[in-house]
Amino acid sequence: MDLAEAHQLHAFFFPFMAQGHLIPFVDMARLFSSHGVKVTIITTPLNARLFSNTIDRGKQLGLDISILLIPFPSEEAGLPQGYENAGSFTNFPAVASKFFDALSLFQQPFEDLLKEYRPDRIVADMFFPWVTDVSQSLGYLVSYFMELVSSSLCVSDNRYLCCFGSSRSDRVDEVSALDSLKKPTHFGKMMERIRESEGRSFGILVNSFNELEPTYADHYRKVVGRKAWHIGPVSLSNMDIADKAERGNKASIDEHVLNDEEAEQRRIIEEFEKKMEGRGLIIRDWAPQILFLDHPAVGGFVTHCGWNSTLESISAGVPMITWPLFAEQFHNEKLVTQVLKVGLSVGAMEFQRVGGEKEVVKRDNIKKTVEQLMGSGEEAELMRSRVRELKKMAERALEEGGSSYADVTTLIEELRQLPWPAI
């Protein structure tokens, strides 16, 4: 046995402070730990509370996984104390620039942690592009975890080539068809820096599985020419009911008791409750989404087409009604409705800002789409059949011998063979 095989690989995992990033990052960290990697998750005190119970349960199962705290620079960034997560702000677009400025202030503390704890490898969120500069100066190669599916990554690359020019001629027609919207302008510079940093990284980890989008996975590796490992669906690493119930935050309900304690928007909620009496359930706070999607009574899922929710619905075998709001969600909708054909669109065609009052979807469209999805027609039956088959593929992908299992083990082996950091 050589030195690389004898040494337990120790990796820092550094997630972006938002639920849509923290949740899959913690799932991924547990997945890598289950393959024998020592994992340390770097986050801030308030964000750690969101998943500390999950980490503790992992430790009880024998996983070598822990949390290392780093202060959130609220004062330096001009943000109020106690707001350490993008989801803490009801008006996030108004403070987004300050929040992202705060992320850049983690550079020195992060470098200090590297020098103190000397991990072997680093897996960082895409929204920390500066990690490449800091880490490579110390002899590290960085892997980035992307919350984008391969089809969206291909679209982003394709769009960049269209905007800035390239001699590349072997573009994928399906990818071009998906490129229907522009990037939000206030993210433009950041996305460009992310793209540049990604190009200098060791490669990216994608929360998807090869069987879901083989054309795009193949295009990204062979045509775009970047290393990528499809390691998902990482949500399927949650086998315990408690992990599903507490995933991401303390839910306003648990796996046994369903109640209502919030008073927000009282009048509207009460009116809706009367209409839904005996037919449904209203949850006003955080909901354990994968717990509900796994329930046999759920026959359809209305989703904004964020990739976590989309993949979780596929993994549960639940067809979707798609209602994208912004960013790559419109690309994900095309994948769901036109490529995979496991969902129906309500017809949202424009970016929708938080708090906007503009009507983007007609109520008749919603009614028609729900009736189509939940009906007994041939199209609905075919969607249900296709998504059930994708669920089986997703489960097989993470099993020993599956494609995602193979990508995880291959990546870990490649990380073992890399030169060790100089510090």
UniProtKB/TrEMBL annotation:
Pfam family, any one: UDPGT
Gene3D superfamilies, sorted: Glycogen Phosphorylase B
UniProt keyword terms in alphabetical order: Glycosyltransferase, Transferase
GO molecular function, one term: UDP-glucosyltransferase activity
Residue stretches making up the Glycosyltransferase N-terminal domain: 14-234
InterPro entries membership: Glyco_transf_N (IPR058980), UDP_glucos_trans (IPR002213)
Domain of life: Eukaryota
Family to which the UniProt record says this protein belongs: Belongs to the UDP-glycosyltransferase family.
PANTHER family noted in UniProt: GLYCOSYLTRANSFERASE, SCOPOLETIN GLUCOSYLTRANSFERASE-LIKE
The protein, known as: Glycosyltransferase N-terminal domain-containing protein
Organism: Protea cynaroides
